[in-house]
Amino acid sequence: MYYPIWYDPTFLIFIVPAMILGLIAQAAVQGRFKQYSQVATMRGLTGAQVARQILDTNGLSGVSIEETQGFLSDNYDPRSQTLRLSPDVARSTSVAAVGVAAHESGHALQHARGYLPLQLRSALVPAVQFGSWLGPLIIMAGILLEALMGAFTLGNALAWFGVLLFGLVAVFSFVTLPVEIDASARAKAMLYQYNIVDRRELDGVNKVLNAAAWTYVAAAIAALLQVLRWVFILTAGNRRR
Ligand SMILES: [Zn+2]
Question: DSSP assignment, residue 38?
């Protein structure tokens, strides 16, 4: 017997804590970003200027910088080799802005240098897009096959295959962690080395980027909990038989 979603205790055990953790991490990074958006750097370079300097110094003049709408929507697109910075980052000379700009430049550097976890992450993207929606569907199909048609072995095998497919989402989230931590490490080293920030400002950059890293940790934990939820549902179903 499987619970309908509105009466599902596994939702409360596995999904709700993950959602709360994610919300706390999001609030923390937004708070840190806003706090250090008020602190100007002595050098007075904008986020866009910092990104340009880092890219050019590292022989990446071919990477273009564009402005994109949204709050903390900054990203690096490896396909078009474009760095997209939000207005709060591109136009500001704050500690938060130069930190985020340098972090995104760090991703461009990872791409140019063939940083292995980034390559692995990019390779996983198609499989993850597939697995995130097809995985749960296959699990449901397996459970239905078991329950309605009595095809226990086949249904069970199918359901576990769905869990494996869905598990790719969690693998992806964990591969993202070294990619993000490395981009921030590169950012901090370059900002200091190129005299864009001083020691005190570097401390602020550190706080902003650490807060951002925790959102990825929260996402990885959430993805793992989602997989564990399915494992729990399937094994509990087996025990009841
Ligand atoms: Zn990043």
Answer: S
Question: Would strands 82-85 and 64-67 be described as parallel, antiparallel, or unpaired?
Answer: parallel
Question: From start to end of the chain, where are the E strands?
Answer: 64-67, 75-77, 82-85
Segment 150-174, tens digit of pLDDT: 777 888 899 999 999 999 999 999 9
Q: Which CA distances in Å does 169 have to 20, 102, 235, 239?
A: 19, 27, 21, 27
Q: What is the pTM of this model?
A: 0.90
Rounded to whole angstroms, the Cα distance separating 189 from 83 reads 19
pLDDT grade, residue 3 (50/70/90)? Answer: low
Identify the burial level of 150 via C-beta atoms within 10 angstroms of its C-beta, where 0-12 means exposed, 13-18 middle and 19 or more buried. Answer: exposed
Closest by Cα among 235, 227, 218 to 167: 227
Q: How far is the CA of 184 from the centre of ligand 1 (A)?
A: 7
Which residues participate in catalysis according to the annotation?
104
Distance CA 90, CA 84 (A): 9
Kindly state the average pLDDT of the residues 207-219: 97
Residue 26 Cα to ligand 1 midpoint, Å, equals 14
Q: How far is ligand 1, taken at its centre, from the CA of residue 42, in Å? A: 25
Structural tokens at position 86 = 């939000």
How many residues are present in the chain?
A: 241
